[in-house]
Design brief:
This protein is of the alpha+beta class and 344 residues long. It contains eleven helices and nine strands. The protein binds 3,4-dihydroxyphenylalanine (DAH).
Length: 344
């Protein structure tokens, strides 16, 4: 019997030595160590062995199964390590390799110029309006009526302004001037505010026009505010925004909410005043509308025009940005092309 056990041991050791993978090892484990294994059967047969030999044979069977088990476990550990190394090798990361390029988010040029313009006016003593006084979805009253815009004015036409199909009189504001009225209704002079925001116009889109764009509105109402103050503030703004070298001019104009009114032009950046398609041959590009607040507008918000005067202005942010950076197509601001945006 002893011989038989040693024979089993020998076979097992050779098989374990030659085993090629975990699957074969499992078969070996089954063959030599399971309940149905030959060794186990021998253990069961111990009762037929002469009593004086039993302890020795019993000990030997145990010893051999332990030995086989230890070797099987050792082999299993080896296979596990091999598999693990294969996996690690396959998933290896070389931290010295250059990474793939992920474009970063970038501040939008319109946001950049808006911030610049706001900063300049803050230096000149203007404060940002509360958001609630500057809604984009507006009623006609604030976009037109209280700004002295007559009922039959062409700006009110559906060709120019977006009207809600659901609610009467509800529009997308066509100018940031609604903010002036809301501010004056909710506070008393002195008022010195600016209000940047989006405006909408029902327009066919081209290199010069988009039906969504941005404006900054400004309003200064107090005792003794004059047209001289208007010119002083706007000239200072232009000097700070464009630098002193850019020629500008004030031009007589008309707006229902200001009297007198003026538009400000700066010399065309493309042709330097010679005249080109960008400036329609005039050599000048308009950047803002402005004027002394019409007494009717003050009266409509219960401010006495005999005591207070004021000036207001509204400027197009796209136009100001295009002029500063010589951009010739307004649609570039809305395409989100990273090659364009990255230049700012
Ligand atoms: N709201 C005018 C526009 O969109 C611009 C403007 C002109 C605003 C004169 C003003 C102003 O506040 O006084 O064309």
């Amino acid at each position: 019997m002893e011989e038989k056990i040693l024979q089993i041991k020998k076979e097992a050791l050779t098989e374990i030595e030659q085993v090629k993978n975990q699957k074969e090892l499992d078969e070996i484990r089954n063959k030599y160590l399971s309940r149905a294994s030959e060794l186990n059967n021998l253990k069961k047969g111990l009762k037929d062995v002469a009593p004086e030999l039993r302890p020795k044979i019993g000990a030997l069977t145990n010893e051999v199964s332990k030995e086989i088990e230890a070797l099987v476990n050792k082999k299993a550990e080896e296979f596990y390590q091999i598999e693990l190394n294969k996996k690690l090798e396959a998933e290896k990361i070389d931290v010295t390799l250059p990474s793939t390029y992920e474009p970063y988010g970038h501040i939008h040029p319109l946001t950049k110029t808006t911030n610049e313009i706001v900063e300049i006016f803050e230096m000149l003593g203007f404060s940002l309006i509360k958001n609630e006084y500057s809604p984009e979805v507006e009623v006609e009253k604030y976009n037109f009526d209280l700004l002295n815009v007559p009922k039959e004015h062409p700006a009110r036409d559906v060709q120019d302004t977006f009207y809600s199909k659901l609610a009467k009189n509800v529009i997308l504001r066509s100018q940031t001037s609604n903010a002036q009225v809301r501010q004056m209704q909710n506070s008393r002079p002195p008022i010195k505010i600016i209000s940047p925001g989006r405006v909408y116009r029902s327009e066919s889109v081209s290199a010069r026009k988009n039906n969504l764009f941005h404006q900054i509105e400004g309003l200064y109402v107090d005792k003794n505010v004059t047209f001289g103050d208007l010119k002083g503030v706007l000239n200072e703004f232009i000097r700070l925004y464009f630098g002193s070298s850019r020629p500008t001019r004030f031009r007589n104009s008309f707006f229902p909410f200001t009297e007198p009114s003026a538009e400000v032009d700066v010399q065309c950046i493309m042709c330097h005043g010679k005249g080109c398609p960008t400036c329609s041959g005039t050599g000048w590009l308009e950047i803002l509308g402005s004027g002394m607040v019409d007494p009717n507008v003050l009266r409509a918000v219960d401010i006495d025009p005999d005591v207070y005067t004021g000036f207001a202005f509204g400027m197009g942010i796209e136009r100001l940005t295009m002029l500063k950076y010589a951009i010739d197509d307004i649609r570039l601001f809305f395409n989100n092309d990273i090659r364009f945006l990255n230049q700012f």
